[in-house]
Design a protein that fits this description.
Structural class: alpha+beta
Low-confidence stretches: 1-11, 14-26, 49-58
Number of strands: 8
Shape: globular
Length: 155
């Protein structure tokens, strides 16, 4: 018998919650994690991180540097591809870079010029000081010029 609890929101934003016994799945073989071997230290040390996980440490070499990022939404389906939120009502924190315009921008740039988790968006199209204005500009403007401060936030 397994007990599970799930809490979050569905696609429409309605809060949903499920608590109870997990449904039985007799046809699905469950892995025995107790017998699985952990990766060896040498394997972990040589494996490069996926591009979307490139992070700038707040005390690293690129921390505090500001970069200007220019992207253009060429169709209504284009997305910026960032998980962002307001911090202190003045700046936007980048939580994650996802598929979209910023990831495309990053693909052609050296790591010190890439947008990464932990960066702060200080201004959007010369608007700064109010995070709500920055969010509105990101969602409505066709051309975006972002002032990004590298490694501004700890993850």
């Amino acid at each position: 018998m397994s007990i599970f609890g799930v809490c979050c929101a569905d696609a429409e934003g309605t809060t949903v919650e499920a608590v109870g016994d997990a449904p039985a799945q007799p046809d699905v073989e469950q892995p025995n994690v107790a017998t699985q071997e952990a990766p060896k230290a040498a394997e972990l040390a040589t494996a490069p991180p996926p591009p979307e996980l490139v992070q700038v440490s707040p005390d690293g070499p690129y921390s505090g540097a500001e970069i200007i990022v220019r992207v253009e939404k060429k169709s209504s389906s284009d997305r910026i591809g960032l998980d962002i939120s307001s911090v202190g009502g003045k700046v936007l924190k980048v939580w994650k870079v996802k598929e979209g315009l910023i990831q495309e921008y990053n693909n052609g740039k050296p790591v010190e010029q890439q947008v990464a988790a932990g960066d702060g968006i200080m201004a959007v199209n010369d608007k700064k000081g109010f995070a709500d204005d920055l969010l509105k500009e990101v969602s409505t403007a066709e051309v975006l010029e972002l002032v990004v401060k590298r490694g501004m936030f700890a993850l």
